Amino acid sequence: MDKNYYVTTPIYYPSGKFHIGTAYVTTLADMLKRLKKMQGYDCLMLTGVDEHGQKIEDKAKDENMSPQEYVDVQADAAKKLWKTMKIDYDIFMRTTDEYHCKAVQEIFERFLKQGDIYKGEYEGWYCKPCESYFTETQLVDGKCPDCGREVTKMKEEAYFFNMKKYADRLLEYYNTHPDFIKPEYRKTEMINNFIKPGLEDLCVTRTSFDWGIKVKSDPKHVIYVWLDALTNYITALGYLSDDDSKFKKYWPADVHLVGKDIARFHLIYWPIFLMALDLPLPKTIFVHNWFVMKDGKMSKSKGNVIYPDQLIERYGLDATKYFLIRELPTSQDGLFSPEEFVERYNFDLCNDLSNLLNRTISMVNKYFDGKVPEYNGLQNEVDEDLEKASKDAITNFENEINNFEFANSLKAIWSYISRTNKYIDETSPWALAKDEESKEKLKSCIYHLVANLREIAILIRPLMEDTSDNMLRQLGMSNNVTWDSLKEYKDIKNTKVIEKGEPIFMRLNADKEVEAIKDMMKK
Ligand code: MSP
């Protein structure tokens, strides 16, 4: 079996602070990498910044900086955020790095030589923030169909990529590779909106600004930022460099994670570029939805933006990451609201998870002097049902992950947590403790609770490592766990839990915290 795993995030435009929406995809990539690592895969995660283009040139000018100075500052800020979020990436791409620029130039020359790229003249409607040209018919109410902003008419000598040539091949690829696009409905969108109406050739150079990679054989042209950016997924691995060992090992990528706004670039242009390079296509491209606010898109002018570092500072990293993954469904956009954030914190993290740990630890101390009783094989219907729930939780979690249903994967863990809480009510250990004859039943009950908590600590580990460490420490267990540790359900004898449990999540004062988050949004 192929035991390598290569996961990528988009590379970000370095234009200011990343809000919680933009932090979503990096959190997700990090979770997937950590999960695969626990499952024994040799993993590589790529993230980084997309540093060229007119938008960056303009921003630098606004800040009285050279573009290079500007992107240097921004790249450092991005790295700082990923450090705060403990993102375990392996490669941080900067598209201004020389090795990348050289490879992009070579790729362009190859396309020229093959006749995939030809010279022509471009006239069309240009959206500056999106760095995209549109035809008259693509505009929505005369505005950019992607971002809704003003467009301007522009004409320039330019190079074009012959997309039409590859349209049939792309469609055929979609139809023969059911795992290529997830979720499925994004494939239908691409076919109906772009491929069926007929693919337009893509303008792949600009002359209206300077900040980009120059065409080697015609340096007054700058290579289109999307051709530059998309190739980062292979140049990061050393494609066309002296050392392409990573490329040989990790390509094709297991999954590119991308937001819905950049689906077209990844689902149409990128596979076509790869076909033209005669390279295998990524195994899956997963398109996620967006976090929106009650009043629509997050924007500074609306005063409704929330940044991950604000939430992390007040509520901790794991609670923030939990919310991000739990609240973004695959089928539609996810809503960020202060009320929902506080509710998830109080119910899921505090009531369900933290209290389960606390109650269990206090019972192990009270009834067994802190030592987990040995499993006595005593089974009743409730125990059987609980053990089945344990098996189901692991399978359900894995199935949801494999189906790219990430919010549901957490739901599967939390229904297991609820099931375990219910088990306490069903077995009433405090009543069992009163009667010497029920001692064996009590042993079985406490044993099962500890065993479940251990599993829960392992299941949440890819997303919430600090919480997992904390739980295992309180349970008196090593954090040296892998995914296989989940199979050893009964291997917890001789553990001694800590004497006094420490709550991992403390109940929040809902009204006060909702106000606090609203204040953060205004800042
Ligand atoms: N530079 C390009 C990507 C090039 S990849 C070869 C780009 N950068 S970006 O900074 O604008 O966006 C980065 C990612 O953040 C995109 O996947 C985008 O969909 C995502 N998000 C931006 N706002 C978001 C939300 N409100 N919610 C979720 N994701 C969001 O695009």
CATH homologous superfamily of the domain at 337-487 - what is it? Isoleucyl-tRNA Synthetase, Domain 1
Spans where pLDDT lies below 50 across 5 or more residues: none
Main β-sheet: number of strands, strand sense, barrel status? 6 strands, parallel
Mean pLDDT: 95
**What separation lies between the terminal Cα atoms?**
51 Å
Number of DSSP E strands: 14
Number of continuous helical runs? 19
Structural class by helix and strand composition: alpha/beta
Q: How much β-strand is present in the residues? A: 5-15%
The kinds of small molecule bound in this structure are: 5'-O-[(L-methionyl)-sulphamoyl]adenosine
The shape is: elongated
Order of strands across the widest beta sheet? 3-2-1-11-12-7
Reading off the top of the CATH hierarchy, the class of the domain at 337-487 is best stated as Mainly Alpha
Q: Do you know the CATH architecture of the domain at 337-487?
A: Orthogonal Bundle
Provide the CATH topology of the domain at 337-487: Isoleucyl-tRNA Synthetase, Domain 1
Helix content: 40-55%
